[in-house]
User: Which sequence fits this backbone?
């Protein structure tokens, strides 16, 4: 018979793991920063059962904007990866927004009515 672990049990275990982590550095400034990261992680922890809000960058599989949700994984030493990459062999896609974040491209898409038609076409090519 397989034992079922509920999302609440997983979150409780992760919370225990987070609270047992210790900062590597002993300086007061780094300890305060570490404690803020733990506080951020504990705040966002319940939301992980339904997903993680992130702002990926299209420049690499581990490139993203650091958000409070990342703190859980950072503190536990778990790397985050994504598959949202620009094809480097597509100059059009690279120039359309290869260095922008997902949120920046989303905002560009929403405002694509503004600007010259050529710019709007490049934005659509990327998204």
Assistant:
């Amino acid at each position: 018979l397989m034992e079922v672990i509920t999302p609440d049990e997983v979150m409780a275990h992760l919370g225990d793991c987070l609270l047992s982590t210790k900062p590597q550095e002993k300086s007061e400034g780094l300890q305060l920063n570490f404690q803020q990261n733990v506080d951020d992680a504990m705040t966002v922890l319940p939301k992980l059962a339904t997903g993680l809000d992130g702002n990926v960058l299209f420049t690499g599989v581990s490139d993203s904007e650091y958000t409070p949700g990342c703190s859980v994984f950072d503190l536990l030493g778990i790397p985050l990866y994504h598959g949202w990459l620009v094809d480097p062999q597509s100059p059009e896609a690279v120039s359309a927004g290869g260095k922008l974040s997902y949120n920046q491209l989303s905002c560009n898409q929403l405002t694509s009515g503004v600007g010259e038609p050529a710019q709007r076409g490049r934005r659509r090519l990327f998204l």
